[in-house]
Amino acid sequence: MTTWRNGEHHEAIPNHHPIKVGTLSGILKSVATHHGLTSEELIPQLGL
After folding, report:
1. What is the largest CA-CA distance in the chain?
2. CA-to-CA distance for 48 and 38, rounded, in angstroms?
3. What is the C-alpha to C-alpha distance for residues 46 and 37, in angstroms, rounded to an integer?
4. Rounded distance, CA 32 to CA 6, Å?
5. Cβ atoms of residues 2 and 9 within 8 Å
6. Burial class (CB within 10 angstroms; exposed 0-12, middle 13-18, buried 19+) of 20
7. pTM (2 decimals)?
8. d(Cα 10, Cα 13) in Å, to the nearest integer?
9. Beta-strand runs (E) in 1-48
10. Taking a C-beta distance cutoff of 8 angstroms, is the pair 32, 48 a contact?
11. Which among 4, 9, 20, 32 is least buried, having the fewest CB atoms inside 10 angstroms?
12. pLDDT in tens, the chain (48 residues)
């Protein structure tokens, strides 16, 4: 996944089901950090 919002950011999303909780947590933390948020602030914005 790539976003150009707030600068370019790439995040690898595993192509398997289910994604382990620790892996998902790491992805969310990385995306949140890129956007200057905490994971807790990011989750509602994602609609989760």
Report:
1. 30
2. 14
3. 12
4. 11
5. yes
6. exposed
7. 0.78
8. 10
9. 2-3, 9-10
10. no
11. 4
12. 888 887 898 999 999 899 999 999 999 999 999 999 999 999 999 887
Of the candidates 28, 23, 30, the one whose C-alpha atom is nearest the C-alpha of residue 46 is 28
Token pair in block for residue 45: 């914005």
Q: Which value, in Å, is the radius of gyration of the alpha carbons in the chain?
A: 11
Joined together, the tokens standing for residue 25 give 């947590």
- The token pair that represents 48 in the structure block: 């989760």
Distance CA 17, CA 20 (A): 8
User: What DSSP state is assigned to residue 20?
Assistant: P
Q: For residue 11, how many C-alpha atoms fall within 13 Å in the half-sphere facing its CB?
A: 18
Q: Which residues contact 36 (CB under 8 A, 6 or more apart)?
A: 6
